[in-house]
Amino acid sequence: MKNIFSGMNLNQKLGSFVGILGVAALFLGNPYTGSTATVNTKELTALIQQEADHVEAEQLADWIIQGKSDFRLLDLRSEAEFAQYHIPGAENAPLAGLSDYPVHRNDKVILYSEGGIHAAQAWILFKAREYKSAYVLRGGLDEWKEKILFPTVLLKPSQQDLAAYEKKKNVSKFFGGSPQTGSGEAKTGPQMAMPKLEMPSQAVPPGGAKKKKKEGC
Amino acid sequence: MNAPFFKFGFFNDDVSLIVAFVIGIGFGFFLERAGFGSARKLCAQFYLTDMAVFKVMFTAIITAMVGLYYLSLAGFVDLSLVNVNPTFIVPQTIGGLILGVGFVVGGYCPGTSCVAASTGRIDGAVYLAGILVGVFAFGEAFPLLKGFYNSTSMGSITLPELLGVSYGLVVFLVVLMAVGGFAGATWVEKKFAGAKS
Amino acid sequence: MTAQSKAVSMNVIGVAEKTERTPHPYSNPYLAGLGLGLVLLAAFVVMGRGLGASGAFSSLVATGVQAVAPEHAKSNEYFAEYLGDGSQHPLKDWLVFEVLGVLVGGFVSGILAGRLRKTVEKGPNISVRGRLTYAFVGGIIMGVGAKLARGCTSGQALTGGAVLGVGSWAFMMMVFAGAYAAAYFVRRQWR
Fold first, then answer.
1. Residue C36: its chain B contacts at CB < 8 A?
2. Cβ contacts (< 8 Å) between B182 and chain C: which residues?
3. Which residues of chain C have a CB within 8 Å of the CB of B45?
4. Do residues A121 and A96 touch, judged by C-beta distance below 8 A?
């Protein structure tokens, strides 16, 4: 065996080597290993406990009003639901195609869904794939409606409550919602009319905060 | 899984430009090493007297292909993040034919013409100027060509996907074809170069 | 040319002339190909993309058109794509920097091998003017073909070939076919 090998010239040695690799490839598996990921359970648990895994609706509303564009807002619901209403600046990333959805690992991502369950599940997937800044919108769209679009005030509000409520009214108007007055019971059922969709003009441009660069030749 | 490094956010766009420059240096260096700064050597391929173009190209292809395959298998590279140019089968076929003609008429391809120009070949520099004119003409004619240019799209499809076979099988077949090709090329060179000289 | 740059280029030509006397033979093509393949692999691993050349020329042309006739450049869909949305200079592009590197890399290898020479590559049966005409016309044809095919041999054939892209392999075969077919008709250039 050794004689055969040393009898070959350099070219033949190179050819044999790559030939062996090629034959081995026949038996080895699928090279697309990107869909498996390892999860650091301790790290994730810690994040959840420290409440570093979510952002509040009010925070998000503030960021949108201020025109911050350092994050990407992903709406995990279907296209139809997205078309009906979505938080201004959100991109539609249905859960089904989420693993292919282009998001850079360094991007700050906020995930939301109807109630928050899908968002929380997607959060685990994102963290498993080592996205550094992924957050769930706490309460999802439900809490967004309750706190931002249709804020309410107590029946017998204090001075503080009133002041806070004034602010909430402004925020609500900004997003085209309708502040609730009078009765202390929140009437944010599905009967509430959702605001139309031409919202704050400084919406994040389609396709995310960065224009996707072509990588051709 | 850490690679491709850029897509895992290891560095930003500006640094990637430096990476581009360094990689370009390596690219140009090996092209010149192979003698591809010389139009005569390049075109000898098409008269069967010097098969270096075939040898270099396919060695490079199988090196990168096999390397990528094994690095992905090992879990180091996320293959799904490596860019695959989308296929537009008819324009690419016709474009390839035209490119082949331009190659042997002009003597270079865009990459090698840069190497030629930087090693003093005047025809390389003239060729570069021609490319700019050709690109400009294409751009001007684009409204007319747009439909054709965007036709027959197949997406970023790979050979394993198209043929419905495993990636590893295609890797094996390509290696087989290349190594067989190299043996054949050596034979062709002996036959045609020998006869000429 | 300023006096300084003239001095620099005289120095370079001096070096070139000195090393030109004994040009080294070309490398073993398989080793050169191995080196090239490793560079390509490095691009995949570091950037997630491969090599290219024709895209840089498109950026250059688009920039030039924009400088001369900005309205026209913006309204032309093809050039506009290379000019981007205006948020950054179109020449601040990965391929442009890569091509600059190719120029440097080729030069360095040429110097080391003593192959720097101000010359016109041509066969014995054609004049310099004829060869340069062919080169220019060939370049034009190549420019059109490369844009139509969305790449050239470095981008589509090498890169696309290594990731097993269907269009890239079809392209590669057609390049060889086209070149072999046309070779007979221009043989006067090279033989």
1. 27, 30-31, 34, 56, 59-60, 63
2. 30
3. 179
4. no
Q: Write out the two tokens for A13.
A: 């040695």
DSSP lists the bridge partners of residue C33 as: none
Produce one character per residue of A1-31: b if its CB has 16 or more CB atoms within 10 Å, e if not: eeeeeeeeeebbebbeebbebbeebeebeeb
Cβ contacts of B82 on chain C, cutoff 8 Å: 44, 48-49, 163
B120–C136: do the CB atoms touch at under 8 Å? no
Beta-carbon separation of B73 and A29 below 8 A: yes
Instruction: Give this prediction's pTM.
Output: 0.79
B185 at C interface, C-beta within 8 A: no
Residue B9 has a CB neighbour count (10 Å cut-off) of: 14
Q: Which residues are within 8 A (CB) of A216 and not within 5 positions of it... i.e. 6 or more apart?
A: B85, C52, C55, C150, C151, C155
C-facing residues of B in 6-45 (CB < 8 A) are: 6-7, 16-35, 37-41, 43-45
CB A63 within 8 A of CB B108: no
Please report how many Cα atoms fall inside a 13 Å half-sphere around the Cα of residue C34, on the Cβ side. Answer: 11
The tens digit of pLDDT for each residue in B53-74 reads 999 999 999 999 999 999 998 8
Helix (H, G, I), strand (E, B) or coil at C127: coil
Nearest CA of chain C to the CA of A195: how many Å? 31
Contacts of B123 by beta carbon, 8 Å cutoff, 6+ apart: B39, B107, B108, B116, C120, C121, C122, C131, C132, C135
User: Chain A residues within 8 A (CB-CB) of chain B?
Assistant: 11, 15, 18-19, 21-23, 25-35, 37, 100, 104-106, 130, 132, 215-217
Pairing of strands B153-155, B87-88: antiparallel
Can you tell me whether residue C49 is helix, strand or coil? coil
pLDDT higher than 60, residue A187: no
What is the tens place of the pLDDT at every residue in A151-168?
887 777 788 888 888 888
Contact residues, chain B to chain A, C-beta under 8 Å? 1, 7-9, 62-63, 66, 68-70, 72-73, 75, 78-81, 83, 85, 166-169, 171-172, 174-176, 178-179, 182
CA distance C190 to C187: 5
The verdict on a CB contact (< 8 Å) between C149 and B92 is yes
Closest-CA residue in chain B for A27? B168
- pLDDT, one tens digit per residue, over A8-61 is 788 888 888 999 999 999 888 788 877 777 888 998 999 999 988 899 998 898
Q: How many CB pairs under 8 A join A and C?
A: 33
